[in-house]
Write a structure and sequence with these properties.
alpha/beta; five-stranded parallel β-sheet; 8 helices
C-alpha cells in the first residue's frame, strides 16, 4: 500500500483504445479537483493524443522511450511537449542497457528480463546493433565519459523540457549515471552520434508485435 491519500503525478501508462482519451483524462481531472492527485502524466502516446488530452486538462509530463537507439519522439512528440509546456520524460535513455559499458548476452539474461523478447536483442539484429554500441563506446571514451554518461547527455541536449529516468537496480550504475551531471556534450559529438546511430542504422523494432499493439506512439514509415 502507498500509505498516502495524495499522488503528486499520476500517469496513464497505456491508452485504452476502446475509451476516448478525453473521457480517461476527464476522470483523472476529477481526481485533481478532489485533491487526490496533483497532476496528470501520459506514457507512450502520440502527439495527437497528447493534444486531445491536454485540451481537457493540462498534462504535466509525457513519458516515452528515447535514446540514440530510439528516435520515435523526434517525429512529433518532442515538439508538441515543447509547445504545450509539457515535461518530456525519457525512459530507457541508455537504450535498455545497450548504450553502457556492460557486456550483454541475451541468452544469459535472468528470467523475467523482457529484453530477449525484443527484436533488437535477437539474432542478427543484436549482432548489428552491438557493432554500433562498440563504436559509440569509443566516442564516449575519447570524450572522457562512459557510454551511459554520453547517452544521458545526448538525451538531455534535446531541450530544456527534457528529463531522463534511467532505470537500474545497482548503486554503482546509479553513481555512474549522476557522476558527470555537469558535462555538456559538444554539438560536434552529438552530430557524430547521430551519424552513427539512427533509425536507419539500428536493426529491429523496439517492441514485439504484442507489446507494440498496446502503445500509441508515432512510428517511422
Amino acid at each position: 500500500m502507498l500509505q498516502t491519500d495524495h499522488i503528486d503525478l499520476y500517469y496513464l501508462h497505456r491508452r485504452d483504445f476502446n475509451v476516448p482519451i478525453e473521457e480517461s483524462i476527464g476522470v483523472l481531472a476529477d481526481l485533481v479537483r478532489e485533491g487526490k492527485i496533483g497532476s496528470i502524466g501520459l506514457s507512450e502516446m502520440s502527439a495527437e493524443t497528447v493534444r486531445r488530452a491536454h485540451a481537457v486538462h493540462p498534462i504535466a509530463a509525457l513519458q516515452t522511450e528515447y535514446s540514440p537507439m530510439t528516435r520515435n519522439p523526434e517525429i512529433a512528440v518532442l515538439d508538441v511537449c515543447r509547445e504545450l509546456g509539457i515535461t518530456f520524460v525519457a525512459f530507457s535513455p541508455v537504450g535498455r542497457g545497450l548504450l553502457t559499458d556492460a557486456v550483454l548476452d541475451p541468452d544469459g539474461m535472468v528470467k523475467g528480463d523482457i529484453r530477449p523478447g525484443m527484436p533488437r536483442f535477437q539474432g542478427e539484429n543484436f549482432v548489428q546493433n552491438m557493432a554500433l554500441v562498440r563504436a559509440f563506446a569509443q566516442i564516449a571514451a575519447r570524450e572522457g565519459v562512459t557510454a551511459a554518461q554520453l547517452a544521458l547527455a545526448w538525451v538531455l541536449a534535446k531541450g530544456e523540457h527534457v528529463v531522463t529516468i534511467p532505470g537500474t537496480g545497482r548503486i554503482d550504475h546509479l553513481e555512474e549515471n549522476i557522476a558527470r551531471w555537469d558535462w555538456e556534450m559538444p554539438d560536434s559529438v552529438g552530430a557524430e552520434v547521430d551519424a552513427l546511430i539512427n533509425r536507419e542504422s539500428v536493426a529491429g523494432g523496439r517492441y514485439n508485435d504484442a507489446m507494440q499493439a498496446t502503445i500509441d506512439t508515432e512510428e517511422f514509415a
